[in-house]
């Protein structure tokens, strides 16, 4: 049977399922990117498979294997690690920040002080061979 010969009820159910299950989530993710930023949305999206597995167990009485529990634990552990407080690590003369809002990489003479990018001395030009 081709798609042209399907009853109107099939087309109606297809449209009804397409809007809340596909179109609406796309708009919701776009709005979440705007409000909380893509880094946080990416972290939160890791919870989707965990929620799907949990809801299947609760609502549909599906069985869960040990491998699935291990996967859930890894996903939840990753979200927990990534959603923690931003840390700044100083190695030798380079300060790196894990804060998603801070995209600068500053070098300094002393490991305890980092210069803002505008205060850095000019870098020598690299000449080609």
Structural overview:
The chain has 129 residues and is mainly α. The chain has 4 helices and 3 strands. It has helices at 8-36, 38-45, 48-60, 66-82; strands at 88-91, 94-97, 106-107. A 3-stranded antiparallel beta sheet has the order 1-2-3, with no helix packed on it. The longest helix is centred in the N-terminal third of the chain and has 29 residues, at 8-36. The model is unreliable at 107-112 (pLDDT under 50).
Offer a quick outline of the entry.
This protein has 129 residues and is mostly helical. Helices cover 52% and strands 8% of the residues.
The percent range for helix content is 40-55%
Please describe the biggest sheet, giving its number of strands, its sense, and whether it closes into a barrel: 3 strands, antiparallel
Shape: extended
Instruction: Give the overall pLDDT as a whole number.
Output: 77
SSE succession: HHHHEEE
- Over all CA atoms, what is the radius of gyration? 25 Å
- In spatial order, strands of the major sheet run 1-2-3
**Quaternary structure type:** single chain
How much strand? Answer: 5-15%
Unreliable stretches covering 5 or more consecutive residues = 107-112
Count of DSSP H/I helices = 4
Number of strands: 3
Structural class by secondary-structure content? mainly alpha
Task: Give the end-to-end Cα distance, rounded to a whole number of Å.
Answer: 67 Å
């Amino acid at each position: 049977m081709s798609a042209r010969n399907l009853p109107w009820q099939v087309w109606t159910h297809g449209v009804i399922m397409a809007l809340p299950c596909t179109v609406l989530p796309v708009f919701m993710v776009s709005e979440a990117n705007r409000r909380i930023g893509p880094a946080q949305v990416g972290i939160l999206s890791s919870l989707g498979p965990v929620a799907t597995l949990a809801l299947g167990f609760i609502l549909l009485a599906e069985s869960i294997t040990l491998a699935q529990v291990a996967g859930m634990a890894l996903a939840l552990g990753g979200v927990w690690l990534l959603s923690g407080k931003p840390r700044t690590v100083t190695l030798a003369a380079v300060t790196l920040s894990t804060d998603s809002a801070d995209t600068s990489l500053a070098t300094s003479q002393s490991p305890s002080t980092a210069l803002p990018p505008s205060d850095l001395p000019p870098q020598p030009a690299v000449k080609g061979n």
